[in-house]
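Appendix B: a complete holo record

For completeness, this appendix reproduces one full record from the ligand-bound portion of the collection. The bound molecule is adenosine-5'-triphosphate. The inputs are the chain sequence and the ligand SMILES; the output is the full three-dimensional arrangement of the complex, encoded as structure tokens. No fields have been trimmed.
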Amino acid sequence: MEVSGPEDDPFLSQLHQVQCPVCQQMMPAAHINSHLDRCLLLNPAGHAEPAAGPHGPGERPKGLSPPGTKRRRLSESSALKQPATPTAAESSEGEGEEGDDGGETESRESYDAPPTPSGARLIPDFPVARASSPARKGSGKRPAAAAAVAGSASPRSWDEAEAPEEEEAVGEGDGDADAEGEDDPGHWEADPAAFGASGGGRAHSRALAAEEIRQMLEGKPLADKMRPDTLQDYIGQSRAVGQETLLRSLLETNEIPSLILWGPPGCGKTTLAHIIANNSKKHSIRFVTLSATNAKTNDVRDVIKQAQNEKSFFKRKTILFIDEIHRFNKSQQDTFLPHVECGTITLIGATTENPSFQVNAALLSRCRVIVLEKLPVEAMVTILMRAINSLGIHVLDSSRSTDPLSHSSNSSSEPSVFIEDKAVDTLAYLSDGDARIGLNGLQLAVLARLSSRKMFCKKSGQAYSPSRVLITENDVKEGLQKSHILYDRAGEEHYNCISALHKSMRGSDASASLYWLARMLEGGEDPLYVARRLVRFASEDIGLADPSALPQAVAAYQGCHFIGMPECEVLLAQCVVYFARAPKSIEVYSAYNNVKACLRNHQGPLPPVPLHLRNAPTRLMKDLGYGKGYKYNPMYSEPVDQEYLPEELRGVDFFKQRRC
Ligand SMILES: Nc1ncnc2c1ncn2[C@@H]1O[C@H](COP(=O)(O)OP(=O)(O)OP(=O)(O)O)[C@@H](O)[C@H]1O
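The structure of the chain with adenosine-5'-triphosphate bound, as generated:
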């Protein structure tokens, strides 16, 4: 059961037109959130010229464009170099195909037309530092529409400047990361002023020295540092928590129902729980975090006991967040059931697996399932830009010839670290909707670049000057390769690699099989996807040549399910090598295919089941001749001469050849 809003209905979307509060362009309501994400990139302070008027909707009157300023073209960033892959297509699905409010004369076109791969993101002229993030502040008030970036326009504030209390975390897990912060020597929280929702704060144009940036990036992963605390900074996911969704109203009135957050890795499940935690603490609700990867049933019982005490003595509610809830087995999940039922705890579970299969049906029926989607490229760009701005890194228009490194000014107010716009786009694209990969890839790319520069200066005896450093597209690709092997989990690579694995096992090449397995797992492939393929392989390619292959594959699947990555990788490796070395037989597989072909090619009605093979549980059936003449094999010491196929198929042997 997905929480949905009117924007989910394509028909209503057509009827219900809304106006963008930033650029004034009219568009279907369903597109407003994704449009705003991007429109605000162009008009961070809400200074867009009205699009309607004598020039038509979305058309900018000539001359209104600020001199020397190019507007970022959304469609271009989403087109991103590999437009044909399923990932690219998927990314844009559901988020609307609209471009921005456009610049010059093509705005209307870019709203409707498919993305064009030609242009780079347009950014301000070098070296003038300007922000590109919608979430930055610095220009005084946050534009009213900015709230809608995350689908929020509620007057009720979710981001009152209040330092969140630490979450109560039992065991280790994502929830712990937040609690670690204070003690972490490399700790740095993303400057909330740099992208907060209430105006003021660090201006994007603040120039930071390379060394300063390097120090900020050390320590915790950038993804953790950038985890938003408020719904306003929660990018995308408008179908789940956008304006006018039921969930959003419930959250805003602090009526948190029990929830199952279902979505792919890095799409914001834990982040949404973290935002709910921040908010609930303001209302004196306890928020306890457990990770099903390491929590025991006793931990759950302890939490429930404490929740009961809090409820009866202090009338205090408890929200229990369980990350990776699918890792709990059914009986562990049963532990929650009565307590969710009677309201002792409000359960929020996060899972990457389909809850219909992985969550107890009784528990599921007491929770609202919120489906979070893979983040589209545009949302990824917004998230990356938020990090880039808060780090004080400046985006460089790579189509321009000016070389920032050769710029001679030594003014300390000028930015010293730049990133190519196409590097941001590439990172957004290759992250495949996983913000963690994108942010951590960015962190590695910048750190690697800054560190190599420092090393170079040290080796060459030059004084290390935190002058200009440019992060290129290649740097981010390398960064991604280090943090995450380039692997398109939803696109062609996914199918290419699984096919290569299957063929290597079929060809009995254990070494190559391991290679393809590692390529997928290191690239972030779901181990259960690989395990499912192994189950299939066990029957299709090994079959009766080694009947123990199938139980092995099923065991590997279950093992992966129990322990998850990275521990389960060795289970898969063992199974893959076993299969590569196993004798192969396609006897059953091809015979079964022959039968299917026979059925498919059959002309006319299928032949009836021979009477002697029919069961005869009633007298009437017996009278009709059901079961008559059937020879019960165990009663015969000799082989029984009896027909089992319909009359017209007599003599067909599906193991020998296709006869139909
Ligand atoms: N919608 C979002 N808006 C802004 N930042 C996001 C969003 N989603 C994810 N992030 C960033 O990505 C990081 C990882 O996201 P998060 O931990 O919420 O993913 P997840 O869906 O819980 O993934 P997993 O299933 O792997 O645990 C966060 O720390 C945050 O910085």
